[in-house]
Amino acid sequence: MPLRPSGSRRSVSGRTHGMWPEAPDPLLGHTLADRYRLEKVIGHGGMGTVYRAEHVVIRKPVAVKVLDAAHSERRVEVQRFLNEARAASKIRHEHVVDITDFGSTDDGLVFLVMEYLEGEDLAATSDREGSLPWRRAAAIVLQIAAALEAAHAQGIIHRDMKPENCFRIRRGNDPDFIKVLDFGIAKVLEDSEVERPSSAGSGLLGTPEYLAPELIRGLKPDARVDIYAVGVMLYDLLVGKLPFAGESFMSTLTAHLMELPTPPSQARPAAEIPAALDAVVLRALAKDRDLRYDTIGEFAAALRAAIAEADVVVAPPPTPPPLPPPLPEPPRTSPRWIAAGVVALLVLFSAVLWTMAKRFYTTGQVAPAPAAATVVAPIAAAAPVLAAPVAATKVEAPVEVAKVEVAKAEAPPVAAPPVAAPPVEPPPVEPPTDEAPADEAPEPATVRGPATPKGPRNGPAPLTADEFAAGMAKLGARVKLECSRYALRKMAVTVQVVVGADGSVKSAEPTGSQAGSTLGNCVARVAKTALLRPSRAKSSHRHTFTM
Ligand SMILES: Nc1ncnc2c1ncn2[C@@H]1O[C@H](COP(=O)(O)OP(=O)(O)OP(=O)(O)O)[C@@H](O)[C@H]1O
Fold it and tell me: What are the Low complexity biased-composition ranges (predicted)?
């Protein structure tokens, strides 16, 4: 296969048809297998032509790949193609193109029907946009890895992973939803006697820029060839340049075998690619397959961990446990209250005196003052605080001011007289448990009952609700990036998260209406990557992400 010209990622697909106008495709307008009317040629690949077609009964657009005559004439090859199509159609994964039908016609045409994808392949995206921000590149590659994981679980090795086989479509709000194409076809080709354009006479199958060294050495491939190819793709997306690309077919193969790639962060310093991401890419590109990740699932986990590491909440060094909360200040009796009390007493005293004097002058005797009780009652109720502090406090408030305050004195509630509390340390704070989420449980600062000294000797302070919320908030962007395709705008997802004493998330579960949903599980998966401050004991929290 000719190497792609510099700046172009197009490789084998799209044959060159020379300078003469192409003859119209003879199959256009025909209805294949009585069901698929072929409407338009989408493109030509190594095995055949892909058409946009319409299912004549259900009127749904589909993509139909029709094998070239050179392949269709070989019965063994056709049988293998159909076997692989059958296997690939069973993968059934959201990131794998759906194969809905396959077979052969009476005319001997062998075909495969797929869901019709509107969008562009990753090669076109890269050609237009160049390198992508590392988070976007990683999010795209995680989807590719998920598709491959599903295929590998069915024993299908892709063998021809490249940007042209990864289609980018819009799904909901997500413009980067990936569908992987061409599963299993490469495996068929492995035993084919028909040379693919991509092999360019070398006997090698696949596309040279993505060929794992063991394939070049002629070893039997296993799933790790796909890991290598995905490593090349991730490198390309991050850096905007292939890790191994020589001037010729042979020099590219030699680079795969001999050259060590420049780490992505060095190849593109301005992109601030985290070191942990470098490590993932370089391990996927190990020349010795035993040094690569064993499975694509391991690769994906490492990639997720690298993203999480970049998102890590920078844990402060373990701090000494908090000092006991300051004792509540004894409620100070303000001079205004004292003045008010004095005025009240003066009023009361004057009233009693006035009553007694009145009686004295009218009856000539000093009688007990029953009216005083009715006067005293409301005043006493209004200012019980006066009982203790007034006596102990020097009051110098002018009576004029105090008069005004008397009126107000009835309104505010008055605290109980201050009692000097003995200094206490905070009581032991029970780590919140799964059953009692920390958000609902009392905060550590809440003192319950008499103190049992514990704090300073029991390790770092408990993780507070605020610290947890801050840690989760840092994942907000990633949650949106990875999970928004499953959500409507502004949808809320609440997760219940258990944080271990070491600061790692032990479990994260979506709750409420999102419990068990794809969206909920996606958000929980991201939440699990959080790393919080080590604390004294495990704790349980809730957090709500808004999409
Ligand atoms: N399901 C689909 N929906 C829309 N376009 C598709 C679909 N499948 C393939 N195509 C497009 O059809 C063209 C030919 O695809 P095909 O898979 O035959 O070739 P290829 O992958 O480029 O080459 P090769 O088969 O050599 O790997 C490509 O442009 C591809 O993007």
Answer: 1-15
Q: Supply 262's token pair.
A: 């420049």
Q: How far, in Å, are 26, 348, 389, 531 from residue 367 at the CA level?
A: 127, 16, 31, 80
Rounded to the nearest angstrom, the distance between the alpha carbon of 48 and the centre of ligand 1 is: 9
Q: What is the pLDDT of residues 461-518, one digit of tens each?
A: 899 999 999 999 888 888 888 877 777 777 889 999 999 998 889 999 999 888 878 7
Instruction: Among 42, 47, 97, 166, name the best residue to mutate to test ligand 1's pocket (greatest count of ligand atoms within 8 A of Cβ).
Output: 42
Question: 3-state class of 151 per DSSP?
Answer: helix
Asked if 115 contacts 95 with a C-beta cutoff of 8 angstroms, the reply is no
Going by C-alpha positions, the residue among 286, 283, 328, 278 that lies closest to residue 307 is: 278
Distance of CA 355 to the CA centre of its chain: 80
Q: What count of other Cβ atoms lies within 10 Å of the Cβ of residue 333? A: 21
> Position of tokens 């890419």?
281
**Whole-angstrom Cα distance, residue 517 to residue 525?**
12
Neighbours of 546 (CB within 10 A): 12
182 lines ligand 1 (CB under 6 A): yes
H or E segment to which residue 346 belongs: helix 335-363
**Residues sharing a CB contact under 8 Å with residue 227, sequence separation 6 or more, in sequence order:** 284, 292, 293, 295, 296, 299
- The two structure tokens encoding residue 298: 């391991």
Q: What is the pLDDT of residues 260-288, one digit of tens each?
A: 999 999 999 999 999 999 999 999 999 99
Q: Ligand 1, residues 164, 180, 204: which to mutate, most atoms within 8 A of Cβ?
A: 164
- Annotation says 311 is catalytic: no
ipTM score of the complex?
0.97
Three-class SS state of 7: coil
Give the Cα separation of 475 and 544 in Å (integer): 11
Closest by CA to 166, choosing from 226, 114, 123, is: 123
442 closest CA partner among 325, 331, 532:
325
